[in-house]
Each structure stands twice: as C-alpha cells, then as structure tokens.
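--- STAGE predict ---
source: upstream dedup step, 1 unique chain passed
mode: sequence only
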Amino acid sequence: MVRTGVLTMKMEVCVDSVESAIAADRGGANRIELCSALSEGGITPSAGLIEAIRANVGIDVFIIIRPRGGDFVYSEHELGIMRADILEARKRKIDGVVLGVLTPSGEVDRERTKELVDLARPLQVTFHRAFDLCADLDRALEDVIACGAERVLTAGGKANAMEGATALALLKRIASGRISIMAGGGIRAANVRSIVSKTGVDEVHTSLSRKIEVSCSDGNGDKVSRLIGNKGFRVVEEDVREFKNTLESIESEAKTSASLR
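--- STAGE serialize ---
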C-alpha cells in the first residue's frame, strides 16, 4: 500500500458529446477530455463541438490532438494538422491539449513532442496513453518531462490501471513531483479506491460511459428502442457524482490519517 498523505484528488472524464460534457460538469468532474471517434481511441473533435462544449460547461476542457486512429508515428502532413489544431484550441480558449508522438522504434519523439508542447503554450499539456506503448517506461517518463508536459496519462504500460498499479506506483516515485502521473484505463467508482491506495496518484481519468436507449416511434405508431450517443454510450451525471463522492471520501480518509501520524 502506498501512503497517500494529504490528497487533493482530480477527476478527468473523457467525453465525446455536449450531453456527456454537461453531465461530467454537473456531477463534479474537475476536467473533461474531449474527443471524437472514441471507438478508435479518440481523435481531434470538430471546431463546432469544441465551441458548443466550451459554451456549456464551466470546468476545464482539454481536447485531444490526434489526426487519426492507429499508431502515434506521424508524417509531416499529419504533424501540420496537429499544429493547426493546437492553434485552433488556443484561439477558442481551451484549457489544455492531450497529445503524444512516438518514434518508429517505440520511444517518445522528443523533438516533435516538444515542438507541439511549446506551440500549445500557455495551454496545459497531457501526454496521452501512447506512453503505454513505449518499451522503457522509465526512459519515456524522463523524455516526457524533458518535453515540458504537465502530466502523463498512463495505465503503467498495461491494458488497465489495476493491472498496471505496480508500475504506476514506481512512475509516481520516479516523477517525484516533476510531472503529474494521471492513472487511466478501466477506472470506475468500484476500483478507484484500490488504485489510489496502491499507486499514490492524485489524478484519475475515467470514461464512465454507459449504454443509453430511448424509445421512439417507428412511423407506424409502434414504440421502438434505439441507441444514442457514441454507439449508444453516454456519460451520466449520477455516475460521475458517485465517482466524485468516492474521491472525496479518499481525500477525507487521507487527511484523517495524516492528522493522526
């Protein structure tokens, strides 16, 4: 078990629609990561979607800068698109961007990542889970720190944060306050307490989306159900609030424990 000390937990929710963003805001999230095409792991959202969400939520909005699905080795044309999207995010007063560039050999591309980080200023920058594809996570962490990003989103090189808890705890220790380690991958209210206890992280990323169906008419007067949102999935305010309440409970317990030491 990692001693957590006095924590101030931050909760980031991944969303792909205005409705999900509003639910995240009302449920108590600190920040949203806005993506499109979540079925492909997320790509840069449209200007229209960015504008609509910026107008409807009061919490921090980060957008993913990813021109396509697939790997994270980008051509010069794709990097040009990423530069333009970063400038668009700055113009629309977005709070941060989420990005990552790798080399063909599976390392952080320090030169290109740093260029994008510098271009994004004064926005915050998160290096996303491309990090988990690096063979040497310790070296990758030092590379991301050298690029100037504020945080790295990671599952410790595993499919989910629970499986990667040991590596996450090690990354947290190596980071030593130089960068925030944000745990992500399969985190829900039911397991976040265990993940925080094992890793000591104070930022967590979650999708919390659930299948949503609505009833509508088929045109012949009969009611049918159809899925809405991203393949029928959407963030629900109550789920966000449950997750937030769990984080607040973890904070409270950590403060009580610290006061008794």
